[in-house]
Amino acid sequence: MRKQNLMLFPPEIASEFVAEQEGFSALAYKCPAGIWTIGFGHTGNVFENDMVTRGEAYRLLDKDLVNTQEDLARLVHVDLNENQFKALMSFVYNFGLTKCRRYTLFKMINAENEQGIRYWWPRYCNPGTSFEKGLKARRLRELELFFKR
Predict the structure, then answer these.
(1) Is 6 among the domain residues?
(2) Helix, strand, coil percent content, the chain, rounded in steps of 5
């Protein structure tokens, strides 16, 4: 697959993959960070007892992914193929720009260091927490997609 600038991809092409990784909740819940969350990981203007349909959740996700794409453009300075774009959209959507700026993984991506990417990507899974196993599995699915041709 030919590499392309990541801003050429419409952010919604990552929706299905991100939605699968996030899982769906019609009812608002507090995420591990204590933030009210709904749908497929949406956190903006969410309150206890809020509810959404699956369709509403996809619309929120698509809006959120526009911001995620902008964040990704600040982090990655090399061309990506579509699978790499989707995998990174999932990763950045999960962690956010502030955290990702500090991650060695993005240095490896910008250096196009395959060995470094494979080493660092699975390490971002909140080790020592009850969420580690699920996040580790998510990181491995993202990594597999990133290197899928």
Answers:
(1) no
(2) 60, 10, 30
Give the model's pLDDT for residue 127.
67
Read off φ and ψ for residue 123, nearest 5 degrees. Answer: -80, -15
pLDDT in tens, 49-106: 999 999 999 999 999 999 999 999 999 999 999 999 999 999 999 998 999 999 999 9
Domain span at residue 75?
A: 12-146
Contact at 8 Å (CB) between 21 and 90? yes
Angle between helices 82-95 and 15-22 (to 10 degrees): 40
Within 10 Å of residue 47's Cβ, how many Cβ atoms?
8
* 3-state secondary structure at position 140: helix
pTM: 0.92
